[in-house]
Amino acid sequence: MQRTLKQPIHLTGKGLHSGKRAEVRILPASAEYGVWLRRVDVTDRDNLIPALYDHVNDTRLCTRLANDAGVEVSTVEHLMAALAGTGVHNALIEIDGPEIPIMDGSADAFVEAILRVGLTTQAAPVRAIKILQPVQISVDGFSARLLPADSLEIDFAIDFPEAAIGQQAKTLKMANGAFVRELSNCRTFCRRSDVDMMQSAGLALGGGLENAIVVDGGKVLNPEGFRRDDECVRHKMLDALGDLYLAGAPILGRYEGNKAGHRATNMLLRELFSQPDAFEMVTCSEAQWHDLPGAHISSEDIIRA
Predict the structure, then answer these.
(1) Is residue 202 a part of any domain in this protein?
(2) Burial of 137 (0-12, 13-18, 19+ CB in 10 A)
């Protein structure tokens, strides 16, 4: 059965790129509604934006969505990952600015808020996108592909010259609770040189050690260090889950990313939907529902190994 929130959620925080504070409300929505965003500060034109891959108009530093009226919301990937990872199928996200708050650089604040208010089931079946044939993209040194599988699996590899990151790889079957336990508290990361360059260009004005891991060669500049030894590749997996949820439904398939990011995942979804024979929309069986990322989770899943 589809699910939505039992109660509205209210969160505040600053945007990573603008540095400005924004208020976000995540509201329950009716069955079959899907996920939409509403810019409540925009009143002179259409302010509703569907959370769908074909409304992505920028992936350079984050994932940004836009509607036909030119209304935009950026940095949606962590919130989308939280919705996917907790099994929220229907929600309206209201925000009073152009950027979802970065919080601590992970999806944890969103996940904890969702689990705190709880979910309610709705009288509608869960439909998923079942991958039937391999689909892949490869460009500019990165690649991503989707392969047939019974449930969602994510396999990711990264390779950075900085010794603090280096080569990392991880594979996870995203069955119930795995996202919450294994990925949701893993933060975005960047290099000190990138931070300096972006801020000199007027970007990442809200970035700092409180909402990102910053590395400089072999050093982690955050006093607390990494939350996990492989936190960087885990965060890439978090991003991938959020960007994949812009397909409009859970995916039953194996995602493999090599040095991939927001651009790669969005390109992959566009390639997938350009090949009608590569997928089918299915009504989830009980066994398939059981293996979806957000099935059978509770606040206890926040307790991590």
Answers:
(1) yes
(2) buried
**Chain CA centroid to CA 177, Å:** 15
Q: Which residue shows structure tokens 């509205």?
A: 8
Range of the domain at 65: 3-121
**Last residue within a domain, chosen from 76, 101, 121:** 121
Q: Which of 104, 121, 138 is the last residue of a domain?
A: 121
Q: What residues are annotated to the active site?
A: 262
CA distance 50 to 35: 6
| Contact between residue 213 and residue 268 where contact means Cβ atoms under 8 Å apart | no
Please tell me whether residue 85 adopts helix, strand or coil conformation.
helix
The whole model's pTM is what?
Answer: 0.95
Q: What is the pLDDT of residues 255-272, one digit of tens each?
A: 999 999 999 999 999 999
Kindly calculate the radius of gyration of the chain based on its CA atoms and give it in whole angstroms: 18
Nearest to 84 by CA among 193, 246, 221: 246
Torsion angle defined by CA atoms of residues 202, 203, 205 and 209, in that order, rounded to the nearest 10 degrees: -140
